[in-house]
Amino acid sequence: MNENEQLMQRAAHEAQQIEKVIEQLSASLDSLTELKETIEEITQLKKGEEILLPVANGIFIKGKIEDSSKLYLNVGEGIVLDKNKEQALKLLEKQEAEILKSKKEAEEKLEQIMKMLLSKQKNV
């Protein structure tokens, strides 16, 4: 295998890795969208309303709403902060913007690699 073929093989492998990253970022965006919708719904519940609270994947416990105006966010290292709906959504929108930026950068990198691969194939 000559040097040009090795370069193309490495670029193709890198393109596959970037595609995986883009898929993961898209999944994260979908999760954030779902989470924002859930926050909108749950903060409209009234005191005393019953809901099912997730314990683990597919396992729930019944609970009653005491105060739906406050959300408790885990910010890492065992620290939990209470936020209102607007504050929580603002944090999620910040995360969404960061993910969108990363996704755009990955897509641009993938496009560069694909252009390079196409130009190399034409020269072969």
Q: Number of helical segments?
A: 2
> What do we call the CATH topology?
Helix Hairpins
Helical fraction equals 55-70%
Based on the coordinates given, report the CATH architecture. Answer: Orthogonal Bundle
Major sheet size, sense and barrel closure: 2 strands, antiparallel
Total strand segments = 4
Number of domains: 1
Mean pLDDT reading: 92
User: Taking strands numbered 1, 2, ... along the chain, how are they ordered across the largest sheet?
Assistant: 1-2
Keyword list:
single chain, 124 residues, alpha+beta, Helix Hairpins, two-stranded antiparallel ribbon, 2 helices, 4 strands, 19% strand, elongated
How is the secondary structure organized here?
Layout: H1 3-42, E1 50-56, E2 59-64, E3 71-76, E4 79-83, H2 85-123
Antiparallel strand pairs: 1-2, 3-4
Helix pairs in contact: 1-2
Structure explained in plain terms:
The structure is a single chain. This protein has a single domain (3-123), classed as Helix Hairpins. 64% of the residues lie in helices and 19% in strands. The protein is built from two helices and four strands; from the N terminus they run H-E-E-E-E-H. The protein has helices at residues 3-42, 85-123, and strands at residues 50-56, 59-64, 71-76, 79-83. Strand 3 (71-76) and strand 4 (79-83) form a beta hairpin. Helix 1 (3-42) runs antiparallel to helix 2 (85-123).
How would you sum up this structure in a few lines?
By secondary structure, the protein is α+β, with helices and mostly antiparallel strands. It contains 2 helices and 4 strands.
